[in-house]
Design a protein that fits this description.
The longest helix is centred in the N-terminal third of the chain and has 6 residues, at about 1-5. The chain has one helix at about 1-5; strands at about 10-15, 20-25, 35-40, 45-50, 55-60, 65-70, 75-80, 90, 95-100, 105-110, 115-120, 130-135, 140-145, 150-155, 160-165, 170-175, 180-185, 190-195, 200-205, 210-215, 225-230, 230-235, 235-240, 250, 260, 270-275, 280-285, 290-295, 300-305. The model is unreliable at about 1-25 and about 240-245 (pLDDT under 50). The chain is globular, with a radius of gyration of 18 Å. The strands form 8 sheets. A 4-stranded antiparallel β-sheet has the order 4-5-6-7, with no helix packed on it. The protein has a 4-stranded antiparallel β-sheet with strand order 8-9-10-11, with no helix packed on it. A 4-stranded antiparallel β-sheet has the order 12-13-14-15, with no helix packed on it. Strand 12 (about 130-135) and strand 13 (about 140-145) form a beta hairpin. The protein is mainly β. Helix content is about 0%, strand content about 55%. The relative contact order is 0.11.
């Protein structure tokens, strides 16, 4: 409970943007900027709060992972040799280890206090884009550009299951609050709900768009939220559309029906996060903003400005 009280101060855990390497945190009461941290150079690729709320980690495009002290605003630890350009960062539930997901398909586990790399997990053939722990902290799920999701026992590092169902890369994977299910969003435009115990597909939620960038669960597990966008291809490369998208989509998990669409066709959304008390939803935008929504009504409460480039 102590951790939840501390983290409930933050509706946006940490937001980030390219090139200028700056992180912001906002107060949940009035959404004003509480503090910002700036790197000397480099794109910030990922951020993650520690379980006790005292630190957060940031991954730099120039090869560093920094552990920041929230109270002082100073860098507590720099991991330079083990965590170059991590796509995703996540702390172990006990706060002792930091896990990084990488473009070469590897997941690295590092001791936060010593900076020592403890082990490297293999299994994905392409970039690992997303990591999530089960609510009890026993299992780790990873989603990859290779279209698969791997579930591992965290204590033994053993691979328990490999989930196949997406036809393209997996951008986001999240465990349900009760630990029974996984949700994944993919470049194939679908959100899949999986049985976490046997790896079977329970439902496929069609978004009718090209790409699902991020997914998250409501606190009661009855709803799923996804950030969506159209894509277009040029010279063999796939790009996000800035104009044709559905913004945020909310599904009823039990029926599989789409019940609400927020901010359709306005801007491409990136990662989305629910505040620890479940009242607010934060969505990152390629228009240099973070949007705060009322999670119950879907009303847009505030648009937070301050970044100079895309917020991921």
């Amino acid at each position: 409970m102590k951790t939840r009280r501390f983290l409930s101060l933050f509706a946006v855990f940490a937001t980030l943007f390219a090139n200028f390497g700056t992180l912001f945190a906002q107060n949940e009461k009035d959404f004003k900027c509480l503090f910002s941290f700036k790197l000397n150079s480099g794109t910030i690729e990922a951020v993650s709060w520690s379980p006790d709320g005292r630190y957060f980690a940031s991954s730099s495009g120039y090869g560093n992972v920094c552990i920041w002290d929230v109270k002082t605003g100073e860098i507590n630890t720099v991991l330079t040799t083990n965590f170059q350009e991590a796509n995703s960062l996540i702390w172990s539930p006990d706060g002792e280890y930091l896990l990084g997901a990488f473009s070469d398909g590897k997941i690295k586990i590092c001791d936060v206090e010593t900076g020592e790399r403890l082990t490297t997990l293999f299994g994905h053939s392409e970039s690992v884009n997303s990591l999530t722990f089960s609510p009890d902290g026993k299992y780790l799920a990873s989603g990859s550009k290779d279209g698969t999701i791997i579930i591992r026992d965290l204590s033994t590092r053993e691979r328990l299951q490999t989930l196949y169902g997406h036809s393209r890369g997996v951008n986001s994977v999240r465990w349900s609050p009760d630990g029974k299910y996984l949700a994944s969003g993919s470049d194939d435009g679908n959100v899949i709900i999986w049985n976490a115990n046997n790896g079977k597909i329970l439902k496929t939620l069609e978004a009718n768009l090209d790409m699902v960038l991020s997914v998250c669960w409501s606190l009661d597990g009855n709803y799923l939220i996804g950030s969506m966008t159209e894509t277009f291809e040029s010279s063999g490369e796939v790009y996000y559309s800035e104009y044709e998208n559905e913004g945020l989509v909310i599904w009823d998990v039990n029926s599989g029906q789409k019940i609400k669409t927020l901010e359709r066709g306005v801007e491409s959304m990136g990662s989305i996060h629910l505040s620890p008390n479940g009242k607010y939803l934060a969505s990152c935008s390629d228009r240099k903003t973070v949007i705060i929504w009322d999670a119950n009504s879907g009303e847009k409460l505030q648009t937070l400005k301050g970044h100079y480039k895309k917020v991921y």
